[in-house]
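Cont'd.
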Amino acid sequence: RCRARSGRARRGRPLRWWIAMSGRKWVVHVCGWTGCPWYQRAAKLAASLSLLYPSKYESELHETATRDEYRAELFSAYRARCPESEAAQSHTSSPFVYVGLEGETRFVGGCDAMVDWARGEVRPSGEARAEAGMRSDGFGKGDVAHEYDYDVVVIGGGSGGLACSKECARLGARVAVLDFVKPSPAGTTWGLGGTCVNVGCIPKKLMHTASIVGEAMAEDAAAFGWSQASRGAHDWSRMVGSVQDHVKSLNFKYRVALREAGITYLNKLGSFVDAHTLRVVDKRGEASSVTAARFVVAVGGRPTRLACEGAELAIDSDDLFSLAKPPGRTLCIGGGYVALECGGFLAGLGYETTCMIRSIALRGFDRECVDKIVAKMEQHGVTMQFGATPSKIEKVGEVLRVTDSTGAVREYDTVLVAVGRRADTAGLELANVPGALDSVNPQTGKFTCVDEQLPTAPHLYAIGDVIDGRPELTPVAIEAGLRLARRLYSDSAEPMDYENVPTTVFTPLEYGAIGLTEEAAADALGDDLEVYLSEFSPLEYALSETRADRGDAAFAKLLVDKSANGRVVGLHYLGPNAGEVTQGFAVAMRKGATYADFLSTVGIHPTVAEELTTLTVTKASGLSVQKGGC
Amino acid sequence: MKSRAMVALSSRRLARSARRLSSSPAVFSVTAAEFQSRVVGNAVPVVLDCYADWCGPCKTLTPLLKSAVEAQRGSVQLALLDTDAEQELGMQLGIRSLPTVYGVAGGRVVDTFTGARPKEDVDRFVANLAKHGPPPPQEEEA
């Protein structure tokens, strides 16, 4: 029996229940300032709720241009709208979220609180809702009968595609995987496994390791008593041979794994003919077709090429890791991690290397850390050329002559272009799937997805580098693929969590990071940000005179939100084994670890990682951050 | 009912064909197209060595197989299958790791092992396989 006639909530019934019964709408008020990323998130969430459930929610944004203006409004107006809430009166950060209905208001909190509240709205506790943020595509949990060849066809056999397909098969779906490598402009192809295995993470890390081994021989061996260890010249072909043998063994392992999982592997290039049909073509050009209820697009990306004259003379990362001849004097064009990592290990192997960067290095990363990486690259022997782009590349005999935008002309044996990557969706013929193109970002070719689903073509899903606005990392694609498979073929409703994804850049000075950069944290937190940092020398460097003369050092930085109980919002480490050092801390940050948690954790000695548990000097104090000894 | 002469003739023919097969090269590379005739349908037992160029242990094992087979003087042959070149066949054979070696006699797999093995094990494998073959050619009946 409906008790609510007067429009006031009765005690004992949640306001939500009353709303549902009476058919009235919540107004979700989100107050914040434009440059605050948490305000932007909360605003998007409010808009999404009103789009998903337009009869239940309306969103209203109260946005100020600057943080100061927001704070002024907060103290004078926003808090006053929730007079009965004590939490509202002491709320100091952005955003300030409350829900209202005909004069009644309920304070929700900041962004995190709003996300929790919204989840509860969409998924009432006690009910396992199948779809999370995804729309139903009509095929249920794989239990809906259909006449297609497969329950799901995964297009792309890379990190995301393979993980997703194996999980779908494990959950009982009938699965096929399409994988086909279109040759690079220089003609390079490779086997099953995608970018990471063949032309990305794996060969990169192995070649980076080759460089480190060389460095250890040159700079450390003698001091540690290996007086006979002389470095000598590096054998490029031997290294490439060993790396490629390993890559091929991985291709083989993946083929076996797909077969053992009962997945049909088709080494064919697919394109859509209609909503449920793919035309698939093998390397001999023979065509056939394949149908499926659902598709997961995981085609990843390919290197963006230059547009200047002679662009075809450059190789890219698709070619570098299987290059038959040693690269010689190399020009790496680009400022991202691909260019810097490749330039770094090439120099480490003994090749004269230049990095040509249009504006800044490693855009989007913490600037203080990037400055140290660039300085180290110069020390390492890489010529770092800023403010130039290539205008022309010519082949003169066996050598490449490069004219740049400053007018300088230089000669190289190899030019490597690493100026970015584009999603490989053009050939999919998405126009043949009604609604699909509406979810494609025309600039990048990437998909705009909600919970890895194309909202305008719900039986199409996407994971990995091909989706817009997500970190382009193997473990992200894998985890997203696993969770998507479970949402499609089991009772799970768990969405992918893209927050606090740890990363590492394998430049000569390795860099591990989790969470915000100092710039983003300063924007979001202002005076509530505390920065703890330290510069120190790893014990392993102590014996080498070369390193001492050069001042080789490691660096660690924690970004702390004073207004949130000292929660660590950013972690940065520069130094050896950065990936190994950073990984474990990601678990802590996912659980909301605070600066006090870090400080109260006992370190392991002697390591570099322990420094993260002993940071006490703040940037604000102006004290020296350089450490002497133990 | 066959006459004695005819029995003698057919056994001579068998002996001749066995000799012919054993005098063809004992070690050969096999493709998917030839697989049925040269491995499955071979009158003589065949050691099938499934390898790939990128596989280190394969490089250690193949020479041992070669010398063991050559020591059998024609009663066993060695077929080398490049599983990268013949991926589908490799998958059909259910190969999960490399090297994988099959002993094929009378059209069936009678023995198998995976991974590189020491010389004594390889010699024993090949010698055992030879026992599955036709008896050595007899003297022709008068």
